[in-house]
């Protein structure tokens, strides 16, 4: 669910402007999972554009407090959400921790890095939601440390049905600055893509794991 439509449209436009999101239905990308995709999203580029990272920071800070109440701690999911998570925590005047994909093999063998007390209220910040699996593993790690997860806030989601089910099953409320639906509407409006290309992008979103394979 998006925080609000105005923010969703503005965020989508900014991501397209800096090529954090690329749309290429005719020459699809290949994800690490092996999926063929007409879209590629790299929100880490946001950090290189001060005015845009400040916009994302401010929208996160404002909407997190409005939607979840002010938490005790902001947690970022490594590695993509560490930078923006720190900015959000700084804006809200809150402690920050981050969550590794898995515990370190040496030293203190931490998966959650930073100071976190049992029972503290935590909002998790993520940069991108696809299936939601890696994001929810971070939630599980925080819960194992005794955290009370108020919800998750992400920059962008592809809006896959499987992600919606995964978050529902984990009992986690997910809110995003923007999403796939608003991105495509904005991309057509601003002539980044044609309506025909929009149809292709919508087809992919319905079945991303099989899309494009019949063409190989």
TrEMBL record:
Originating gene: pyrE
Main function: Catalyzes the transfer of a ribosyl phosphate group from 5-phosphoribose 1-diphosphate to orotate, leading to the formation of orotidine monophosphate (OMP).
Organism: Flavobacterium hibernum
Cofactor requirement: Mg(2+)
Record: residues binding 5-phospho-alpha-D-ribose 1-diphosphate: 100, 104, 106, 126-134
Transmembrane segments: 73-99
Residue ranges constituting the Phosphoribosyltransferase domain according to the UniProt record: 59-156
Name of the protein: Orotate phosphoribosyltransferase
Gene3D superfamilies named in the record: 3.40.50.2020
């Amino acid at each position: 669910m998006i925080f609000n439509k105005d923010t969703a449209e503005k965020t989508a436009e900014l991501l397209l402007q800096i090529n954090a999101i690329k749309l290429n239905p005719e020459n699809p990308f290949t994800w690490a999972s092996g999926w063929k995709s007409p879209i590629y999203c790299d929100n880490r580029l946001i950090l290189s554009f001060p005015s845009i990272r400040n916009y994302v920071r401010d929208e996160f800070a404002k909407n997190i407090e409005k939607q979840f109440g002010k938490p005790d701690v902001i947690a970022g999911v490594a590695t993509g959400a560490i930078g923006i998570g720190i900015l959000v925590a700084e804006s809200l005047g809150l402690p920050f921790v981050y969550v590794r994909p898995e515990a370190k093999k040496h030293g203190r063998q931490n998966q959650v890095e930073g100071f976190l007390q049992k029972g503290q209220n935590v909002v998790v910040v993520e940069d991108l939601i696809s299936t939601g699996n890696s994001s929810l593993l971070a939630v599980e790690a925080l819960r194992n440390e005794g955290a009370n997860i108020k919800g998750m806030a992400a920059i962008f989601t592809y809006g896959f049905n499987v992600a919606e089910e995964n978050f529902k099953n984990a009992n986690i409320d997910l809110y995003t600055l923007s999403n796939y639906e608003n991105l495509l509407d904005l991309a057509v409006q601003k002539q980044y893509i044609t309506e025909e290309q929009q149809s292709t992008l919508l087809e992919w979103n319905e079945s991303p794991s099989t899309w494009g394979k019949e063409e190989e």
